[in-house]
Amino acid sequence: MSFPMKIAFWVTVAGQIILLLAFIGVKENVLRTGTTVLLQTVPVDPRSLLQGDYAILDYEIAELPTWAAGSKTGDEFFVGLIEGEGGVWRASQYSREKFDTDRVFIKGTVNARGRLDLGIGTYFIPEGTGRIIGQAGDVKVRVAVSSGGSAVIEELLLDGEPFDPTRSTAPAVPPRKPPAPEPVRLPTEEPQPKP
Questions:
Q1: Element containing residue 5 per DSSP (H, E)
Q2: Contact between 132 and 163 (Cβ < 8 Å)
Q3: pTM of the model
Q4: Regarding predicted confidence, which is higher, 4 or 116?
Q5: What is the DSSP letter of 189?
Q6: Which of 15, 74, 105, 163 is deepest in the core (most CB within 10 A)?
Q7: Does 170 fall in a domain?
Q8: Tens digits of per-residue pLDDT, 167-191?
């Protein structure tokens, strides 16, 4: 390999590493400095809930208001958030313009289904643990939101508990004992005297 080719190779490798570190740095900055909010998910078609080793998530706040129903795919919206009952944050306002920086909001774009893609629609999970998410009755997501509206998932909550891929939601059932045989009943009636 010639000297210029070696330089080109190492510049390419260094560029890829720098891009990867920048991507990680941006996400880590949101996690450290962002506002933490708890979002309610909505049911997703169970046949498409798991795609490989990640879960598909959709959110209550991703539904556009009626005035924005005709929006085109790719249109950008800002969803103002307010903390509601049980610590779950709800949409208080939808806007095409960015909110003031002192307000908590998430930025999203309209997807092909006419809902907002908030950038937090997938959650990577260990292989073979998707059934735990599918069996949960209530799924919430704790999210860090930056002052610019970018969001990063902090943790997944299943029925109020942090997602733990090592636990099984199926209740532990003790081993089943075989049924005891029915006792043989002998006639206990004494013969009646004949009249």
A1: helix 3-33
A2: yes
A3: 0.69
A4: 116
A5: P
A6: 105
A7: no
A8: 764 333 334 444 555 554 444 444 4
The boundaries of the domain holding residue 139 are: 35-162
Establish if 62 belongs to a structural domain: yes
In contact, 56 and 44? CB cutoff 8 Å: yes
Question: For the chain, how many structural domains are there in total?
Answer: 1
Inside any domain, residue 11: no
SS3 63: strand
pLDDT at 23: 84
Strands 50-51 and 76-83: unpaired
| pLDDT value, residue 44 | 63
Residue 195 counted as domain residue: no
Amino acid at 133: I
Dihedral of the alpha carbons of 131, 137, 143, 148, in degrees to the nearest 10:
110
Question: If you write DSSP's letter for every residue of 117-177 in order, what string do you get?
Answer: E-S--EEE--TT-HHHHHH-S-EEEEEEE-TTS-EEEEEEEETTEE--TTS-SSPP-PPPP
For 51, residues 6+ apart whose C-beta sits below 8 A from its C-beta are 122
Identify the three-state secondary structure at position 25: helix
